[in-house]
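Before the break, one more example. Copy the sequence into your notebook; we will annotate it together after we see the structure.
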Amino acid sequence: MGGELEVNGKGELKVPFLRSSESVAVSLSPPIHKGDDKVKTTKFQIRGIKCASSSTSIESALRKLNGVKNAMVSALEGQAVVRFMPDLITAKTIKETVEATGFQVGEFRNQDIAVCRLRIKGMACTNCSESSERALSMVDGVKKAVVGLALEEAKVHFDPNVTNTDRIIEAVKDAGFGADLISSGNDVNKVHLQLEGIKSAKDLISILSSLESLEGVNHVEMDMEHHKVSVSYDSDITGPRSLINRIHEAGGSSNFYNASVYIPPRPRETERQHEIQTHRIQFLWSCLCSVPVFIFSMVLPMLRPYGNWLDYKVHHMLTVGMLIRWVLCTPVQFIVGQRFYVGSYHALRRRSANMDVLVALGTNAAYFYSIYVVIKALTSDTFEGQDFFETSAMLISFILLGKYLEVVAKGKTSDALSKLADLAPDIAHLLTLDGDGNVVSEMEISTQLLQKNDIIKILPGGKVPADGIVINGRSHVNESMVTGEAMPVTKSPGDKVIGGTVNENGCLLVKATHVGADTALSQIVQIVEAAQLSRAPVQKLADQISKYFVPTIVLAAFITWLGWFITGEAGIYPKHWIPKAMDAFELALQFGISVLVVACPCALGLATPTAVMVATGKGASQGVLIKGGNALEKAHKVKTVVFDKTGTLTIGKPAVVGAMLFSKFSVEEFCDVTIAAEANSEHPIAKAVLEHAQKIRQKYGSRTVHIKEVKDFEVHPGSGVGGKVGERRVFVGNKRLMRSFNVSIGPEVDNYISDAEQLAHTCVLVAIDQKVAGAFSVTDPVKPEAERVIAYLQSMGISSIMVTGDNWATATAVAKQVGIQKVFAETDPLGKADKIKDLQMEGMTVAMVGDGINDSPALVAADVGMAIGAGTDIAIEAADIVLIKNTLEDVITAIHLSKKTMSRIRLNYVWALGYNVLGVPVAAGILFPFTGVRLPPWLAGACMAASSISVVCSSLLLQYYKKPLNLRINK
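Here is what the structure looks like once it is written out:
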């Protein structure tokens, strides 16, 4: 138990609270700044070197390259070390040069992986996201590309030595989509500054060179026109205030430069509003023409004599109504509807088909047949035909209305994430302290100007601007907005606080440990964003259907038209079925167009990603971080949950629950020697014993405890400590320590030890002069909710197992206390992973819940790894789901949310597939012979739009998700 307890101590906040599971590690030397040059060093293996002359020839070839500063090749190790300037030469060229000399390059590790995020515009369905993902993957140097349809974003991992963001964006545009850069890998810590005092371009160049030479600055972007600069930096080395000071210094005595933080508008929110506005404007322009078309074609002809003027013949059989409808429909078809032509062109160029193709085919069929009718009417004295201009115009209007409502609804799927991002306050109160800790000055600054180790004052009712440690003051902090914990948490010196939480009553002084992108809040947002981009395996169904969906619908539409046309011309169905002013061809054409536009591939594509977006956002707001669709889907299949003991089922901090004297020694003397011995030990159990002994000493003696000096102090690993306190020989530890030093253990002491072990307590004996003077009963208390969680899991049909490195007696006692039937004790970290693999071999889907370094192999081995948020950073890295709040109730929340989400995804597929399965036959006229009911093309277009909206709204219902265990308690 001791070993496990050690890794769960408070420790220092030396690493970020959370890290994204999608981060990519690279072993590459950092750039070396030498004047204005940036030099990189790479090492790689070369096969086939047999002598020194071979290494010399390779060195000679490399040194001739422009941009290579130095090259050394070891014939003995078969390894090359090359220093080069990436601005002048790429690592790929170096590799090719070595291979050109006749040698093979083996392990070439100079793949510096960078990450960028792009906004992808113009995606309508799963085919679009697959096409853009395929286009990105084909770019030379791109290692991995993931495109999210609902989020309309792409995350690309690439080698910056081979390609860059401009080429990546160009590849997306070549595929027929719009693309904008949201962020690149060096945006992790980035500040935007507005420059003042600039008089010429020379001033800007001076500031640029000054910033680039500052240690810790990674990248500088200068906007010459608007006098703005964006700086990416390493927060461990420098910070925003240091950058502003550097700008001041760049002015020298002759020029006065100043800089202030400005916050650029959020690209996502700005673009979303722009997209909503664009769809709204397009719909309104479409209505401006299509509403009159509808009135002139369907309303006025029924209102005799008000509509008689529409039948007035302009020339031959061409009427005024036909001419007006043509004039009004044309701008809708070719100006407002241009987006469908563009989308169809790019889709067909990619050898795929999407919704745009269906809409373009349907509207063009209606429009150009109507043009044919107009030409025939213009040139004939006897021709009577019906135009479909209203079909084309109204179809486009309804589809644009649907897209507008869909964009509005999709914007709400990331509401939870937006609320999280808005939690951080804009202003912080920065304190300056003197050497004695007294406040020298206080000033309000932008939160973006905070740096590590700043002292921040947080007033009652104020938000915590950054992660940190309380150094002064006591208060209650409401963490519900980050962790989902409803009750305020008490904070006192030494406790951690999370940025974005609210200080309720007292005043706190906090030392900032993580600022900017390193804060827990920022990393939660990053993890959720990555999760929303990932695909759930269940989406493969939609992907497979989408490949054949549009071609199938086009074929079905053609067969529908052909079937109705041939049967009509052959007189197979009665002539009275054909509406007045129509013929068999026109009736068949309407049925064919309806089939084209009623089918909706978009609804299928949105069924999974919208549900995943809402669920991951909702989970994050309740303290459950789900790292992607894969984890979300697997969690609903879990039938066995494996729990670690220490720090997971138990609190993770030992506490003394009893003490006993076995000799003539007084309580004061017993406590004094215990305090003296344990004061020198760092073991968690020793600290618990020390704290309890001090309390007893204060109760029976003076308020101030004087710690006696210990001579000949020795630590006996795994057993305890020993030494001389005054003239007495003292040992404090377990039974093994006593036996190794021949300390006699009587029956009374032996019985006490046995009783303690049965209760899952560890017995710490204190021996004075070879006799056991007393004992402390120490335990790691079980979390209060553990028993209730195990019982609830059982009610869900999920079995619970404990796997721990602790001894059998303690493990069995804890398992009995919480209601777990199956226990594996005295298991090392790799053994835990093996136990999980054994369970998986039995056909079980296994979730592992742990918090320590020793749980990482098991977390990775499990189908779903759940890390307690208060655990170590390594455990959090290995997990699929992070329980930020450090409560076992959220194990149930994660599984239950997964079940609800998968149920919602299935319902979305029922909406999408069921709609298409029912809609296409109805549009094809299957009901017409029996009921006389047919689906006009414009109404079919409205149905098509409604299907996408219904799927998105169905996913939005997940925002009302409630935790199951909380509901049960409230009842």
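Residues 1-37, 967-971 have pLDDT under 50 and may be disordered. The radius of gyration is 36 Å. Try to locate both features in your own notes.
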